Amino acid sequence: MELSVFLPALTKSVISLFIIVDPLGNVPIFISLTHGMGVSERRKVFRTAAVTGFILLLAFAIAGNTILDIFGVGLPSFMIAGGILLLILAIKILVIGWEREEKMSPESIGAVPMAVPLLVGPGAITTTILSLQEYGVLVTVSSVVIVFTLTWLILRHIELLYKILGKNGSAIIARVMALLIAAIAIQYITNGLRVFFT
Predict the structure, then answer these.
(1) What's the whole-model pTM score?
(2) Could you tell me the residue ranges of all domains in the chain?
(3) Which residues 6+ apart lie within 8 Å of 78 measured at CB?
């Protein structure tokens, strides 16, 4: 892939995936889930979340096409289904907001619910597979690496970010991200329907 094609594709893929993973919008719930933990323990939890999420999305970035082939799912159908799913998630965030999760032990909290489903939920998996279909393995894998590097940096400095943003600022970011998710969802649905009708 030529550099003039690779860079725009990578930029679009990174932006879309970062919006869906939404580490900034997850700041309030991450703070609440790790409330009362020590600094070293909290960092271990966040590191577990970042590594687990990265490995899971990387698997879909590499084997997404194979997964679709196994289940006999076409790209247009997946785009429409994924778009509807993302739209529901966006509406839930906009209307309900973040719900406090039940308190979990430090040993498991990094993997569930932080990595799955907060960072790597159905929306992130859908976006990764669609990126794989549209841009190829190289762009998709690169975007996963970049997004989770940024996510790890955000998690590592989450306390500083939370102090800067505050509860209201974090809530606003979450809802702005939800609007962008909704827009991406509509585009997925529109593109899928366009393929069907043409």
Answers:
(1) 0.73
(2) 3-197
(3) 68, 126, 129, 130, 133, 192
